[in-house]
Design the sequence.
């Protein structure tokens, strides 16, 4: 018996709409959250893992906030390598499962003049849950990639918010 195209198409459309909604909503939250309320940050240097998507987004966001990022700046911000942890929720035997994705990194803030650490290897993380079908590998990879991109944006925003709240840095 041939599988019904109607059910396959319906499943694909439902999954696609859910993924699009998750990406759009996470993007809206990123853009609306506290942009005007962040204080001006001093000149910073970004060090550590500066090639990750999170670090690139932090650098872009700092530029948008008119914060200078230059090597040898008075404040050293060291970013750790982002770590993505995936945890499957629910029992075995299901075709569709909920996954909890957590993206975390470490953050240090040091004043060069005194060598004092204002933050020392503080872990910052963000997480989300998505439902994916383990049977549809192409769609699964797309959903996971989109979720990871949204988590990178959220984590970079949390890093900026944390920098803005470091006492003595303004």
Sequence:
């Amino acid at each position: 018996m041939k599988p019904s195209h109607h059910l396959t198409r319906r499943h694909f459309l439902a999954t696609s709409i859910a993924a699009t909604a998750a990406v759009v909503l996470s993007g809206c939250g990123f853009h609306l959250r506290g942009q005007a309320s962040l204080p001006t940050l001093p000149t910073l240097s970004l060090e550590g893992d500066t090639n990750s998507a999170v670090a690139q987004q932090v650098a872009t966001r700092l530029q948008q906030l008119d914060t200078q990022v230059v090597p040898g700046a008075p404040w050293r911000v060291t970013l750790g390598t982002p770590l993505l942890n995936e945890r499957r929720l629910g029992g075995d035997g299901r075709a569709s499962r909920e996954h909890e994705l957590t993206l975390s990194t470490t953050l240090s803030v040091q004043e060069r003049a005194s060598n004092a650490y204002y933050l020392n290897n503080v872990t910052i993380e963000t997480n989300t849950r998505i439902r994916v079908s383990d049977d549809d590998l192409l769609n699964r990879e797309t959903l996971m990639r989109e979720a990871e991109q949204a988590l990178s944006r959220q984590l970079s925003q949390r890093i900026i918010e944390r920098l803005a709240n470091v006492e003595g840095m303004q």
The chain is about 40% helix and 30% strand.
